[in-house]
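User: Structure please.
Assistant: Input sequence and predicted structure:
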Amino acid sequence: MEENFDRAPGAGRTRNLPVDPGLVGNAGAGDTKPAFFNQREPLRQPRTLPPFGENNISTANDMAAGDLRRPSKPQQSANANSMSASRRGNEVDTIVKSSKLSASAPEFIPSGINQYEENTFYDESEGYYSEPTLADMVTEFLGHLSSSPGSFESDIEYITGMFNSWVNTEELLNELVELIYTQSTAIPNFAYTGARLCNYLSHHLTISPQSGNFRQLLLKRCRIEYEQREVAVRGDAETQKKLHSYVLFLGELYLNLEVKSAKGHPNRADILLQALNDLMNSLFNNPVDANLICAVKLLKLTGSVLDDAWKESGKPHMEKLIQRIETILLDATCSRDVRQMLLKLVELRSSDWGRVRAAAAASNATPDNDPNYFMNEPTFYTEDGTPFTAADPEYAEKYQEILDRQDYFSDADGENGNELYDDSEDEMEPEMEEAFEHFCRESERKRQQ
């Protein structure tokens, strides 16, 4: 009883986990120290075991002797696992000895695979990667310009140099024109950057075969779509969408493509003027919403430039287009939003496309040629509160009256107005003080009500 009470709390309590038989066998008779390492469930035996030798047999006998002193179910399970693992190991050895497989056997090729097919992409010097093509390079460059249009100026020389090193035949030049045209009309919002790229390449590509240079081949490619306009405006939605992308790209091309004249000054490609006029007439011939929206976008983009060019050549094309728009507003059954767009376009053209003419130079400005001549002049008021400015015909007389009344040129202020300022004039007279106090009291009374 006393030994039970002298032990520490929890001492001697176990969770019925087996103790290593070796530890039990080596412990002395008077050693009552508890075991600190609890034997856990044995780990899974490896799939293959070395053949049992004498050491293994002796170890198994020792374990069996320990089991006689203290039987343990988990230890029996471990022995069973060892025996099953040894049997599996013996079976594996038997299979290996009886196997007919050989390391020197020919390569196994599954059925359905052509063993004589050559890998065209393999190169001992460059690995398995195929050599890039012109299409890959153009797609990469245009994708970069589309995502980073601000880098156009800094990257265009490198891009042009790469094109000059690649495009050295007529076939490659035609492929380059087709790729740039396709990407410029397919990538959203890329028409402006594509037109700038076409203008730069038309002046800096060195190749110029007999069939035409870059600019001539590009205009020929655009002419193919131009000749199909009447069919495209009445086509399905996808065909109309491609036509609208082409129309906007052609508008950007007219604004950005420069053609050197005989005098050396760059001019716009006048050949595109008639094409743009015909395209807008074709869009108005089938006044559905999509075609009308495309025509409005084109006129907002190029309207002022086209109007000036047609006026210089004496052609009334813009007046006829505006008349057609007004007729569509009266007769066509377009949606309300498209109708508002057309009305805004007519108003924009009536205001000279929103342009503000430059004012006359300051040295030559007069009230007759500069509407902003009196913009920064001060505004004065007469005794009865009537405002007047320098634009008033009686301005000189009224202004002189104000100067005389305030004595701006009196001797009291001195010649240069640099005399000391006397702040005694800022003091209020008794009547003014009384009136101010009355005003304050009335304001306080109204605020409290």
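Residues 259 and 267 are 5 Å apart (CA to CA).
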